[in-house]
Amino acid sequence: MLVLSRKAGEQLVIGDNVVITVSKISGNRVSIAIDAPREVSIQRGELASEPVATRSAQQGGTAAASVHVAAHHA
Q1: What residue numbers bound the domain in which 51 lies?
Q2: What sign for the dihedral angle of Cα 53, 34, 46, 40?
Q3: Where is the composition biased (Low complexity) (predicted)?
Q4: Whole-angstrom Cα distance, residue 65 to residue 72?
Q5: N or C end: fewer C-beta atoms under 10 angstroms in the chain?
Q6: Does residue 22 sit in helix, strand or coil?
């Protein structure tokens, strides 16, 4: 595992088309922005390990296999 330190406003670039920006650091919480193609699946770690049916029941409806939270990197 690679561990990097970043300050607010700094970025990480993954491959050719994924950019992660540290938006805000407040106490022990970090807000990040992810810019990636729509076809890249992005999930919180705790949700990625749960079966889709469990997530669906917890969310009160049917859940897709993944949630796309990023827009295409221009």
Answers
A1: 1-74
A2: positive
A3: 63-74
A4: 19
A5: N
A6: strand
